Amino acid sequence: MCGIAGIIDLAGERLVPEGCIQRMARALLHRGPDEEGFLVRPGLALASRRLSIVGLADGQQPMGNEDRNVFVVFNGELFDYVERRVELRERGHRLVTHCDTEIIPHLWEDHREQMWEKLRGQFAIALWDERKRQLQLGRDRFGIAPLFWTRQGDWLLFASEIKGLLASGMVSVRADRRGIDHVFTFSAVPGPRTCFEGVQLLRPGHFLSISPGNGNGASAVVQERAFWEMNFPDQGVEEWGENPKRLVDDFEKVLLQAVEERLRADVPVGAYLSGGVDSSMIVALACHLKGPAINTYTVRVHEPELDELDAASLSARHIGAKPPIVQDFRDEDALATYPRLITAAEAPVIDTACAALLQLSGRVHSCGQKVVLTGEGADEWLVGYPWYKAAKLMGFLDLIPGVGFSNIARNAYLSVNKVPHFSDAWRQQVENSVGGPNAWIDAYGLLAISKLRFYSEPMRETLAQTNPWTELDFPVERAKRWDPLHRGVWIAARVLLAGHLLQAKGDRVAMHSSVEVRYPFLDEDVFDFLAKLHPRWRLRGFRDKHLLRLLAERWVPKSVARRHKVIFRAPLDSFHMQPEPPFIAQLLSEESLRKTGYFDLSAVARWRNDFRKMRAGSLPRFSVEMGLMAVVATQLWHHLFMGGGLADLPEWSAIQTPAAAEARPTQVGELAKT
Of 231, 361, 403, 600, which is the most buried if we count CB atoms within 10 A? Predict the structure, then answer.
């Protein structure tokens, strides 16, 4: 993975403000410490910060075609580039490097906008067609590689991270309260809205086509289109899988191919290893293909119920892999790491495990490694989360049409525990926006209750007529034909996966340490294979990830293959330790809360005191802890990016050290003169 950025004049061919693109590139130095490259034209500037993984000696960007009229800056990996290079050469194209970037301008020559649907891998791409004077921005199907953009008057800017946009000096920094509301709705920022007003996240599987005006009256055209959309068979026509052994064989073949392709690199590839079935399977297949020399990495959380080191070590011994390299993570580490985590994520982060993964990626970097495999995607495709089972149980209460016993039971539980809750009308509105009942509504409802507890009155008024669920653009009419479980898979992929696991828990924390993460379960063929199957292969009775567990019994210890889902997290209550960490008290002081205006002062003070009186481990207490964590994270985000003044912590600044000068200059710098 790398970092890309750019600016285009939508009004014509004005010169890009001096130094602007260089500042944007410097803000992305951590994404690409190896090289930098620029393309500057009248009305256009592109930048690349490169983390060299494939084609180490000749992969400099921007990269063009033979005629030097199509140029590309590229963040990511195209895993089938070996086969694509052969096809392109057979069609007469001349390829002169050894890297995957070079196939992109040639695919554009052959296919134009149909190119996007032919790309396989994880990518964010900017392509400039000199002849058509058109800029294309595109992002992979599942949202692995980030790409943000903003329109500022007649200028359009884009970058791999929002920091790149802010460093331009052309983007005003203002909070988007609706974006913050997404955090309190989903514990994620699924996009296109972000927490920064006017800054959008390009949606997975979409591309922007940008044609600037010509200065003679023709207006600029900016169009966003989907080149891929998640889909499932109609309910009742899914593939039943009559022969279980053959189905497991086929799944093994497609997953093995996905792992093999993600081991392609000119540098060593390692892997994250927890005690769960997902990462254990990936490590097992990787060692089968490459031998036991692969480095594995795991986090040791110093809470007995959260620690997975023993299970990870068991998997490693069974597979024949080297013992995991361990990163210790304690309560105090969460506190010390959180400002850096929010800086990396550019949004409030509620999941303290992200801080652990930020430290783990630093450990990977310190071991001299640039690439790791991981198991994200398995829980999303194969419904590995416990709330699917809870939703199945609640569904039994609604077997009598029109009565709604599940809602009665839900409201009774909340009332008995004195937990505020939304009206039945609100729940119906949410269900209507996602095609019917969905397991994720209750899962996210635990956090959403925090809006009722903590929002200030101005915040409530601003958001009174908004519903973040409708901004997901759920394909309601098409999805009504799907099995309800598949509707849950869509939400999992669109929100948790793209908005959190691949961002605050994936790309952002890993690339902060210049580490690329690869996801075999997010291979296009793996998704297509699983999407067509009947839901019974996902949830058999109350056994989740049924098909994967059948496959895993061939490769890992049965205790791991059959282990129930343990959601990797770190303690939430570390932010409420006694004595209280100074910056927490400062962020939650009356003065700081008044400055931001997001939260009710008395409510924050009350619940900080009262939550300790609630039964440890109970859902009501967990809900309050998540809410307080969200308040802290939002205040910290505001301090870091909105001008400081809330705590004795440094705020983020676009002013960078001259470390960029240490990167080897690239031949691409000469493109500005051509």
Answer: 361
